[in-house]
Please model this.
Amino acid sequence: AQSVTQPDIHITVSEGASLELRCNYSYGATPYLFWYVQSPGQGLQLLLKYFSGDTLVQGIKGFEAEFKRSQSSFNLRKPSVHWSDAAEYFCAVAPTGFQKLVFGTGTRLLVSP
Amino acid sequence: GAVVSQHPSWVICKSGTSVKIECRSLDFQATTMFWYRQFPKQSLMLMATSNEGSKATYEQGVEKDKFLINHASLTLSTLTVTSAHPEDSSFYICSASTTAVAQETQYFGPGTRLLVL
Model:
């Protein structure tokens, strides 16, 4: 069965420091890959997505992610974290090419002053 | 960007009653809408997919008679939790899209927190 693993439940990063959130997926082919952010009281917001082509994907709010087929990974990065980035981050895959998303368990990002 | 609203944002009900949650796409026509359930500190689990004017497709393990989904228009889908019990307490999230293909963005509502006493 398709699955998405986000090994880090919580991550604390100092403001201004770099960030990397890990995501691994289990699927036979290359699925469509997504990163979403969830802030309290707000709906999930799409940060970026990968379907094909360049394996380094640029998203909104200064985020980027790199697809590595050999590692079945799609890690999210940001060079300099802002306090407003504190939120829950979800990696998701759409295994079939249709909008049936399988989500990871999320990583809560805390930003320290 | 596209906006999806949910109403109510939270609801408390007695065991045995039914609760209806609305999901609206405010500025676009949503051919496809999705309903998710999120348990504390857990992932979102897709419950069902609905297309306007047709019956919803439920995921394995989701009781369709328990969770009634109606997608009567291109801007409104409803989820009714029938004869709610405490184990139905959860955070319910809807999303909407203009198509069913993965390349099209899903827009998520802010969620509805249900507490069944």
